Target: Transcriptional regulator
Amino acid sequence: MNLDYYKTFYYVALSKNFTKAAELLGNNQPNVTRSMNNLEAELGCRLFARSNRGVSLTPIGEQLFQYVSAAMNNLEQGEEEIKKTLNIENGLVTIGSSETALRLMLLERLGSFHEEHPKIHFRISSYSTPQTIQALKEGKIDFAVISTPVDIKKPLHKTPLVTFQDVLIGGSKYRELASKTRSLNELMSYPFVSLPPETGTRMFYTQYFMNQHLSFHPEIEVAATDQIRLMVRYNLGIGFCPDDLAADYIARGEVCQIHLQEEIPKRQICLVTDESKVLSSAAQKLRDALAADASYRPFFCDC
Model:
């Protein structure tokens, strides 16, 4: 199959004239005539009726034109979609984010980016860190912004954006625990509030306790970090929370920080991309803005 023949056929059928079709194609009339003669020979039928006034489609030519026209329209629509994808000012960016990453970093950065590029639209899906990575692998999102810990392998690539510190907090019922530095072992009889086992945060604290030869078995599981703060505030238990999110509660005296002997390792918000896939210009622009933003944040840690 010679696709050039069908493209030429399409323009001859539209213009009903070999010379006009040649002009539209940037070709010459003899080449157009030759191409149509060759196509008719290959198909074994006449596609055009020639006359001094031009050409017209034969019944079988009309039949072929329906298929060729549909194919050309699809190609043109595909070309337009590609142009839209490559147009930075009219793109759609799909982002997968863990709740912690969304609250600590992503929302603020999206706000400033949207002011600069108001026609770019966002579609944000909030998952646990493992779920976000799976969505990236399946091509459901352009890139991921998640909190560590995260285990990735090529072609995925991780770029640290910001570093944050978790703290242990308790409500008024547990204020005595904040009177001095405690060991984890001292706290094992108290109820903990945490996220579900399939989340990166829960995995992080399971490992943290294991490093101290202890088991982490929260009595209350909630779906979001904000809910940990609320549960703690109403004395349903003690729980770990990013210090930036706990700061206002602590300042107002609604919760207190419980200092630990065992240092809580710092965590990171990371940008994760799939290097095997091509991003739209809009997604590239936002990805680059997020990465650049990390370079001037004072708490950035490239590790």
